[in-house]
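= Protein in question =
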Amino acid sequence: MDKAVIDAIREKEQLPDSMTDSEIAQEYKGTYTAARAAVSLDHKPLDQVLADTMGKIFPFMKRKK
């Protein structure tokens, strides 16, 4: 499992720093959580894509940052 995926799982699941990368890889290998973490590295969340698209179509719907 890639280090970036392990870091994403650690952040998302709020795992303690005392848990080693190999323990996380062993516990989360082949799980839905690991798959979502891997996808999130390459893609924006769907709700963000929808918000960006709606902002382009309807300028008054842009999110205030």
